[in-house]
Design brief:
By secondary structure, the protein is mostly helical. Helices cover about 75% and strands about 0% of the residues. A two-stranded antiparallel ribbon has the order 1-2. The longest helix is centred in the C-terminal third of the chain and has 84 residues.
């Protein structure tokens, strides 16, 4: 797993190191790193945002299905899946892409915590040699918090870089000072000196609170853009829980981890708030147009279906009329034939001249004078 983690960190470390070499400031390198990562992940965030906003459009239909099939969960799930298919929405896509920042946060934490092996990409043997040299110069690894030995070593190297310069390929003199703050410091270690330590302590301790406040505003902005329809209690509860969980997590991250990670979280929250505002406005406008176009298409389809139904009725009526005409003609023909058959007596058999009508012994001169 450590090997996999190392290769995951490689591209992020390269980006951060490139910006550090360009700016000479670890803090500004973090700001630019956050901006680039945000731009790279923007297409996925846009997809997530669009999916969530589209789901909000048909929340009334979801509520209707939930109410209609409240006593039939199987049918409810079937109808919900049918609705998602018809609308072309995956209800999980919004949630999945929203989790994307967390692997990046873990990778960055590893890079910040292990600047020699992850940021400078030095091998274990080289790190061991550097540690040995630093120890001979007065570095005490036991005075550093467990798990953060490389940060302490990198800071010692920066303070005594003349003794290390040119001796190890790839070794950088990392300046962790940013706006008068030491980004290797953990706010939880110095908060007791808040009133006596001056700006270097005050600024570091404020980082977690600023991070938590921005995370809260970020959650509020996200809820404003993605709020579900009224009555969807499960979604509303989940949104409210996330609105408080994220700021609390930001506060915890800010206090227990190096200030450098807090700087990243602050910049990320600011960029996210801007992104939410812009994307919400953009998709709201486009979805209204899309909805209008969709409604227009539905109307046109309905009119086409109605016209097709009318045409079908006309065809049926024409066929019925044709059948009726044929029947009438056939009936007239049969009547004419019957009449002809009835009147088919010869001239000698007509009334007044029919011998059989008078009897065989009939003699027209019988009563003659």
């Amino acid at each position: 797993m450590s090997t996999i983690g190392y290769y995951i960190c490689v591209p992020f470390a390269w980006v951060l190191r490139t910006f550090y070499e360009l700016t000479g400031s670890y803090g500004w390198a973090l700001v630019l790193f956050t901006l680039v990562v945000k731009l790279i992940t923007l297409p996925f965030q846009m997809k997530s945002k669009k999916s969530m906003m589209r789901m909000n459009l048909f929340q009334p239909k979801v509520k209707e299905i939930q109410t209609k099939y409240a006593n039939n969960p199987t049918r409810m799930n079937e109808e919900m899946q049918l609705l998602y298919t018809q609308e072309g929405v995956n209800p999980m896509s919004g949630c999945l892409w929203s989790l994307l920042p967390f692997p990046i946060l873990l990778a960055l934490y590893s890079i910040i915590r292990q600047p020699l092996s992850r940021f400078m990409m030095l091998s274990k043997d080289v790190v061991t040699e550097i540690t040995t040299l630093a120890t001979t110069l007065g570095y005490n690894a036991e005075s550093v918090r467990v798990g953060y030995e490389e940060i302490g070593l990198a800071k010692f190297i920066s303070d005594n870089f003349a003794d290390f310069s040119g001796k190890f390929d790839g070794l950088l003199n990392v300046n962790y000072n940013f706006l008068g703050l030491d980004l290797t410091v953990m706010p939880g270690d110095v908060w007791k000196d808040f009133f006596t330590g001056g700006w270097p302590v005050i600024g570091v301790v404020l980082i977690p609170f600023i991070s938590g406040a921005l995370s809260f505003l970020q959650s509020k902005a996200s809820m404003a853009g993605n709020v579900a329809a009224e009555g969807n209690d499960a979604t509303a509860r989940s949104s409210r829980m996330m609105m408080w969980m994220m700021p609390l997590m930001s506060l915890w991250i800010g206090f227990t981890l190096p200030a450098a990670l807090g700087v990243y979280w602050i910049v990320n929250s600011l960029l996210y708030a801007i992104q939410e505002k812009v994307l919400t406005k953009y998709y709201k406008s486009h979805m209204e147009d899309e909805l209008s176009e969709k409604e227009k298409q539905k109307r046109d389809d309905r009119l086409r279906r109605m016209e097709a139904a009318r045409e079908q009725q006309r065809k049926i009526a024409a066929e019925e009329a044709k059948k009726k005409t044929l029947k009438e003609k056939r009936a007239e023909k049969q009547a004419a034939k019957a009449t002809k058959k009835k009147n088919s007596t010869n001239e000698s058999g007509r009334v007044g001249d029919r011998p059989y009508a008078r009897g065989r012994s009939y003699d027209p001169e019988h009563y003659g004078e």
